[in-house]
Task: structure prediction
Amino acid sequence: MHELLTNTVTVFLGFFAIMNPIANTTIFIALTDGESEKAKKKIAFKALTITFITILIFSIIGKGIFEMFGITLPAFRITGGILVFFIGYHMLNGESSKMHHPKPGDNEKSPDYLNVAITPLAMPILAGPGTIATAMNYCATDKLIGIVITIGSFLILCFVTYLMFISGERLIKFIGKNNITLITRLMGLILAVIGMQMLLEGIKGANIF
Result:
């Protein structure tokens, strides 16, 4: 029971660090500036629903993708570890990862305010390559309990993120912009360590040394 709880907390914190809902709340506020409270709730709900479905699909069919393309678990862990490490490295240095932030004007062509929930909010900000890689790594074993823990932890994180988004302005005011920068860098450090751990597990599994 203790091991199960430890694994759940570890997976949740890993997702929390990679998705960084605290920092992304500021992005959500900027993207929904001028919208009504009702519209903001709709955008947040749609974005997180799409995010959860995306991670759910990759969590379930991740093994199938491996088999289809002849990808080994060590190879994926090495690649995913490098990817997650560099995202964490950029966050640690106070830089924005291009994989998690939209290009200027990405959403300017759409007249439908809900489209911002799909892109850039759901993808690539929330369900970016790093989040997908992390989910597939956690679900890469044959144990069903691992998949359940991963999906359950991510579902809880989506709910927490939704609450942060809809109360975003109050949250930012309470935490303070300087503290958000500090938290982002702390999340970056955690991510870098997670990425390095994935890399080491991949190297160990591949028997490189």
Summary: The CA atoms of residues 174 and 190 lie 23 Å apart.
